[in-house]
Amino acid sequence: MKRFLMDRLVAWKNTPGHKPLMLEGARQVGKTWLAREFGRTQYAKVAYVSLFDNATMGSLFEGNLSVDRLIPALSIESGTRITPQDTLIILDEVQEAPRAMTALKMFNETAPEYDVLATGSALGIAMHPGSAFPVGKVNRLKLYPMTFLEFLYACGQDGLAELLESKDFALIDVMHERIMAWLRYFLYTGGMPEAVSAFAGTFPNVDFAAIRQVQETLAADYRDDFSKHTDAQPRPVVSTLRLNQVWDSLPSQLARENSKFLYGAVREGGRGKDFEVAIQWLVDASLALRVRRVSTPLKPLAAYEDGNAFKLYCLDVGLLAAMSGLDAHALLDGDELFREFKGALTEQFVCQQLTAQHAKVPYYWSAENSSGELDFLYEQDGQVVPVEVKAGRHKQAKSLIYAQKKHGYPLAYRYSATRHSDNGPIKDMPLYMAGIV
Questions:
Q1: pLDDT digits over 89-128, tens only?
Q2: Pairing relation of β-strands 288-294 and 87-92?
Q3: Is the dihedral of CA 268, 271, 273, 276 positive or negative?
Q4: Could you give all domains of the chain from N- to C-terminal order, each with its CATH number?
């Protein structure tokens, strides 16, 4: 399995004086596998310690956090003699022992010669009532579900993946329909590693029902986590009911013509004060991607952020497809899959790809009078890059053309089911190039 975040882990290792590293993300996106593979390929030794349901380690971190006390205990628990420089210490599921996060501060301040990588479920870190996060004492990286390129590599389609990375559009155009077929597979399967493994391990005799079962189980497990983390708090600031209501509303929110999040679509008569905390928790837990509106599509985008308007996407396109009840027969209908639920899957895919590429959720813009909208905007090399997403092969994009002329963007992308074409500052790109160009 190939995960592009590996390059950033290697860069962390090679940076002099680096702090302990927190690798976070939603449950089941592959954090543990990536951490262990990083250790296996980059270090002489790996001291792996899981804190999940580990009473011994829980007791260890409840006591004195002196590194001189922790190192021998971690060596015994992992069965590995820990020595500086050549050993990677992995504290897996660090949110299960909140003071283990505090221990990262101790490693940074008193024993920087040890390389420590902690993995944590963003849900647990966001919702755990334990110790405060060691702000400023750790480096942080976030792992997202697998991208389309990573999916291709996992399925043994290295040639197609390398072709897309090469950006050789003359050859890409020749292979367009084949790549689009794989993109349809990805919209159904998504990027959760277990679902990808279920697809890749059985292709071409794919059991799509088994993939859907994996996705439904993951979605159910997330719901169970809502109860686990909220009920554990003596004075919950958000209820499990509110979290479930927002989570369950994601497909219907995105399937509307205007996918701006509406509280009334969660529950009749719903208002911001009823659900804003639940939304924040889902975002903090990396289960939802909040795309905020900007009032003006100019840099710096953060300065024009509208705190009252946003769109809420799921963490993964495959999970969204499962929550929407998408049938596998949609894979046989050509481009119709991209238009399902008013293009919700297509927008979700592009949002997910851009977020993974830039390690930051993009913005969107809409006119005050609702007469125009840019699906996504992000900043790159000091410039705002607007993005228009078309669900089919129709490429009309009045808002993008108008915005480009008005603001003079040097680069803009229009993604659709058609082949690449280069017509000045607006680049027509096939959907599968989102997050690659």
A1: 999 999 888 899 899 999 999 999 999 999 998 665 555 5
A2: unpaired
A3: positive
A4: 6-142 (3.40.50.300), 149-433 (no CATH)
